[in-house]
Amino acid sequence: MSGGSSTETLKAVRVQRARILSELLGDVQALADAAVAALREEIPAYAAQGPDFLADVRDQVVRHYRAKLAVLLEEREVTSQDIAFIRRAAMRRARAGVALADYINAYRVGQRVFWESLVARAGHTPAGREAALSLAVRQMRYCDFASTQAANAYMEFQQYAAAETVRESRDLLETLLSGGTPTRGRELAAAQAHGLAPDARTPLLVVIAVLVDPPSTAEPDRGAEARHAACAAIARTGGNGTRTLSVVRRSEIVAIPVLGPGAEPEELCDRLQRVLESLAAEGIRLAMGISTVAAGTAQLPQAYQEARTVLDFVPEEGGVAALPRLTPFQYLALKADDTARHLVDPRITALLSEDRARGGVLTATIRAFAAADLNLRAAAERLQIHPNTAQYRLRRIQERTGRSLRSINDLVELLVAIALQDALPTTNAGRERLGTATNEGRGRADVRSSHEPR
């Protein structure tokens, strides 16, 4: 009897919880109005702002309330993706001169307005009160997580802006890109602060990023805002304890990250890839080009040209084109024109096109065979197939193309054809080759066909 009563109580609480959250979701606009009114009354810095600022605040309150209600309705923890809109809002508050204490206090006020409305809707029934209590912990977790993320984004931009308002940062970048060397004064101090000591052969890279589909000329502020937000995020990618020199330079962002002792350029490329993905979640889509490693500041002009050149390899929807991820072979294939493709035997082109449509089994076999130094058994192990299956595939390739994979010249011709095909744009999903697929040429071919004999 007691067990049945407990079950009924839990059901009643769940019903009340769903009712309360549904009512709040339907009343989000009115809740946002109440929150903005409370902010103006309790925080003088907000009361002193104009209508555009307050409209932006109201929009953020609506976004937060909807995100919070989604988390509560789905009974899960909040994630950074849920509140990806925070970074740009934090930047706008910092640029408006709102103190960090006032900014975080605004979260407290918004939390209180939401909670008071939730409690009011709970009513006086035991099930309603229990439903409200069951939501308290998750709501507090949301507020703690969101306010922490907001504070971090605010501080990130404030640090960036503090460096960016110093003229020496921009002047330093121009000096370095023109081949000059800072020798004294604040410019030299700025170089040393960013780990760019002119007398050292410190390994460096140049990163260039541009907005994909930037806002129209009618909305120049949105473009500038997105560039500065991206610039601030890139400035934090240094892995050696120093802050990366990152500057908005007209329509592009130019950064010069320093590789710390023992650090590999691929690790930095991975960090930049994560930054790009994080910004994309916030609606800031970038095309990013990364140079090869420069041995000291004297090589930065050449590295800058490399980064600009490799931007041409980025698909229209954005992404990262990183020279440290490419082999010379892949780079040459990406630079090839239509004439190079016309030189490929039509039999090879036909085979590779058909194979791509069927999942790339034969292409993977060619790559694995080359990576295994023409050792059939080792190639089969890479592909996780039986050697007989690998042998069967080699015969199919030879029959269709007239090329033997055991002939170095024939194998090179096949690999060149594959690289040229990889460089061609296909679907959006297939055009991520510079981010992940470039490693295929180094032997990462693990495709298996379920229709071939084992």
Plain-language structure description:
There is one protein chain. The chain is α+β, with helices and mostly antiparallel strands. It has three domains: 2-159, Globin-like, CATH 1.10.490; 167-325, Reverse transcriptase/Diguanylate cyclase domain (Alpha-Beta Plaits); 335-442, Arc Repressor Mutant, subunit A, CATH 1.10.10.2840. The protein is built from 19 helices and seven strands. The strands form two sheets. Strands 3-4-2-5-7 form a five-stranded mixed beta sheet, sandwiched between helices. Strands 1-6 form a two-stranded antiparallel ribbon. The longest helix is centred in the first third of the chain and has 39 residues, at 126-164. It is flat, with a radius of gyration of 28 Å. Residues 427-454 have low confidence and may be disordered.
